[in-house]
Amino acid sequence: MNFPKRERSYWIFSKELKDSNIIDENDDKYIITPLGSRLRRLFIAGSVTYKNSDDKMIKATVSDGLGSFYLTSFKNDYHEEVNDVLNSIGTGDLLSVMGKISYFKNNEDIFYFSIVPELVSVISDNERRFWSYRTLYISRRKLMAIREAFKDDVTSETLTGLGYSIDEAESAIRAKKYYNNYDFNGYLQMISSINFENGIQQESQNYYDIILDYIKNNDDGTGCRYDDIVIAARNAKISQDKVDEILNYLGSQGDIYEVSLKRYKALI
Q1: Residue 201's pLDDT is what?
Q2: How far is residue 267's CA from residue 158's CA, in Å, rounded to a whole number?
Q3: What is the pLDDT of residues 140-180, one digit of tens each?
Q4: How many C-beta atoms lie closer than 10 Å to residue 261's C-beta?
Q5: Which of 139, 184, 192, 237 is in the most buried spot, having the most CB atoms within 10 Å?
Q6: CB contact set of 177 (below 8 Å; sequence gap of 6+)
Q7: Which overall architecture, per CATH, does domain 206-266 show?
Q8: What is the mean pLDDT of the chain?
Q9: What is the pTM assigned to this prediction?
Q10: Concatenated DSSP letters of 121-142
Q11: Which of 147-151, 209-213, 258-262 has the lowest mean pLDDT?
């Protein structure tokens, strides 16, 4: 009997996923990232910075040093092995995760991404560093190919002739087509500035609870104002960038929704 091969899992940083806003027009299961990867499955690694579990699902946040990946695993027989691992871990633990991307787009065309884990493993810091440096190498190779792709009359065949792989060449052409105005140099500077030897700075799990509780307790009936959330977060020593990340995460998980521009309501 011939069994179908598992689809390739891509190694990318969380920033590349977060900045994605293109869905493959021929198959909406696939997203196209700023570096041109056409994917629906990822292999990621990092440190657990948040975990929450209820009777239906387990949610976790994994930081790779540049941002966060968001995991959602439903409690059913199909995910039993994955959930056993997720139930056993806590903040600060290091994980590798292979899984499929899930997404939705709101009325303002903003995408929210999460990963449905298929395989989860607790890893060592050496393994975490290996993932980081290999992903850095892959990303730099793609960025160099993209730089070449922006020259006149460059095709994927031109790029393979320069020594790039077929995947790197095709990704570069897609990046040029769909993300012509993306700040590729800024992205290169960002990923090159991270010191992966120092580990990943931990954040308080309470950050998510603080934001969610504030929205629940300060809704005047028309939703909780964004500016008020930011002020309350600042008093709790949470940066505005972190507030935006948490709001995106809570929205992607269905815990809150934006009832009107910059006003949020809790669903639980």
Answers
A1: 55
A2: 52
A3: 999 999 999 999 899 999 999 999 999 999 999 999 999 99
A4: 8
A5: 139
A6: none
A7: Orthogonal Bundle (1.10)
A8: 88
A9: 0.78
A10: EE--HHHHHHHHHHHHHHHHHH
A11: 258-262
pLDDT higher than 80, residue 126 = yes
Q: Name the superfamily (CATH) of residues 1-203.
A: Nucleic acid-binding proteins (2.40.50.140)
Long-range contacts at 175-181 (CB < 8 A, ≥ 24 apart): 175/34, 175/35, 175/36, 175/142, 175/146, 175/149, 176/36, 176/146, 176/149, 176/150, 178/22, 178/32, 178/36, 179/22, 179/34, 179/36
CA–CA gap between residue 179 and residue 182 (Å, rounded): 5
- In 3D space, the residue among 96, 83, 90, 92 whose CA is nearest the CA of residue 122 turns out to be 96
* Contact assessment for residue 83 and residue 56, using Cβ atoms and an 8 Å cutoff: no
Q: Which long-range contacts (CB under 8 A, 24 or more apart) does 25-31 make?
A: 31/101, 31/103, 31/113
Q: How far is CA 57 from CA 7, 79, 82, 205, 245, in A?
A: 25, 10, 11, 18, 21
Q: What CA–CA distance (Å, rounded) separates 110 from 25?
A: 17
Q: Which has more confidence, 222 or 99?
A: 99
Type of residue numbered 65: G
CATH 1.10.10, the chain: domain bounds: 206-266
pLDDT of 204 reads 54
Mark 44-57 as b/e (b = at least 16 C-beta within 10 Å): bbbbbbbbeeeeeb
Domain with CATH 2.40.50.140 in the chain: 1-203
CB 99 within 8 A of CB 71: yes
- What element of type H or E holds 189? helix 184-193
